[in-house]
Amino acid sequence: MASTAAAIRTIALSKSYGSRLAVDHLDLQVERAELFGFLGPNGAGKTTTIRMALGLIAPTGGSVEILGHEVRSHRAQVLPRVGALVESPALYAYLSGRDNLRAIGDVLGGASEKRIDEVLEIVSLKGRDRDKVRTYSMGMKQRLGLAMALLNDPDLLILDEPANGLDPAGIVEMRDLLRDLAAEGKTVFISSHVLTEVQQICTRVAIINHGKLVRVAPVHDLLQSSGEYEVKVDAPAELVALLRLQPWAQQARVEDGLVITPAPEGRGRNLIKFLVDNGQAPDAVSERQKDLEDIFLSLTGGNP
Q1: Least crowded by CB within 10 Å, which of 14, 29, 121, 144?
Q2: Beta bridge partners of 206
Q3: Beta pairing partners, 259
Q4: Strand, helix or coil at 17?
Q5: Residue 163: beta bridge partners?
Q6: Cβ proximity of 192 and 24 under 8 Å
Q7: 94: nearest Cα among 128, 133, 120, 137
Q8: pTM score, two decimals?
Q9: Nearest of 219, 231, 175, 67 to residue 240 by alpha carbon
Q10: Topology given in CATH for the domain delimited by 8-222
């Protein structure tokens, strides 16, 4: 297999349940060592896509390639190189965290105590590893599930809602951990409802709705300025009246005490010059940035 093969590639991937098309001719490519976000409203087809990528369910049409191999015909070659956390991890509540990892290690062909120690350290469960899983919080169970996904030192991590059940400090730890894994050359594919986290951690995102790909782009490109500026002045209503006399500022308005306006030729420096020349020297002028939640809602018309 060529090392340049994409980490994940779907070709016209489709899945029907009766008359309902859960995934509709999805074409998607995730490159090596990417932190890739996979977003969509509930029922958009995210988990169905992940389950097909892992060979857990068969597509109705199309195919999935993982690390250059078609999944269904090369399961034995592909899946040992993939670590996955899909929905809630399947754990033995009556066993300790360490014994859960030993059990998964046996399924994978054996895991040394050294490797178990390493993954426990990575997910910050050292010190609680001999406690029964039934005593774990939801966030601890999620971290143990991630440890299981890391046990075989995979090239690709597929994580469905990895921040599920984590407190704010745990979310920050998870963010740092996933960044470190990507820096080591691992591909991290994240399906998540926590859009603020996806915005901070992922380099590219795909947004799907009703099983169809709506948009795929670098996060930076999605978050580019809306072309408007926020202006702080003492008399916002007076400034809006002045701006609306200009052909380039018909959409000027006041929001939360700030004047929101386009700029001449789209340039902030031109806006500042206009304000000063017209006796409206501002206290502050800044580009108005979109966030991922705004973009998500505009593209899907739904909730994350």
Answers
A1: 121
A2: 38, 216
A3: 231, 254
A4: strand
A5: none
A6: no
A7: 133
A8: 0.80
A9: 231
A10: Rossmann fold (3.40.50)
Tokens standing for 108?
A: 């994978």
Q: Are 137 and 104 in contact (CB under 8 A)?
A: no
Q: In one letter, which amino acid is 244?
A: R
Whether residue 13 has pLDDT greater than 60? yes
If you average pLDDT over residues 249-271, what whole number do you get?
91
pLDDT in tens, 115-167: 999 999 999 899 999 999 999 988 899 899 999 999 999 999 999 988 887 88
Closest CA to 186 of 147, 151, 154: 154
Give the mean pLDDT of 200-228.
87
CA 132/CA 73 separation, integer angstroms = 38
Could you give the angle at the alpha carbon of 184 between the alpha carbons of 180 and 185, nearest 5°? 120
Residue type, 151: L
Cβ neighbourhood burial of 165 (10 Å; 0-12, 13-18, 19+): middle
Q: Which two tokens stand for residue 200?
A: 């901070």
pLDDT of residue 1: 40
Q: Parse the chain into domains and list their residue ranges.
A: 8-222, 229-288
216, 266, 249: which is closest to 37 by C-alpha?
Answer: 216
- What residue type is assigned to position 25 of the chain? H
Model confidence pLDDT, tens digit, residues 25-41: 999 999 999 999 999 88
Residue type, 36: F
Average pLDDT of the residues of the chain: 90
Tokens of 172: 């920050």
Which residue's structure tokens are 């195919």? 63
Q: Rounded distance, CA 2 to CA 67, Å? A: 9
Report the largest interatomic distance among the alpha carbons of the chain, rounded to a whole angstrom.
75
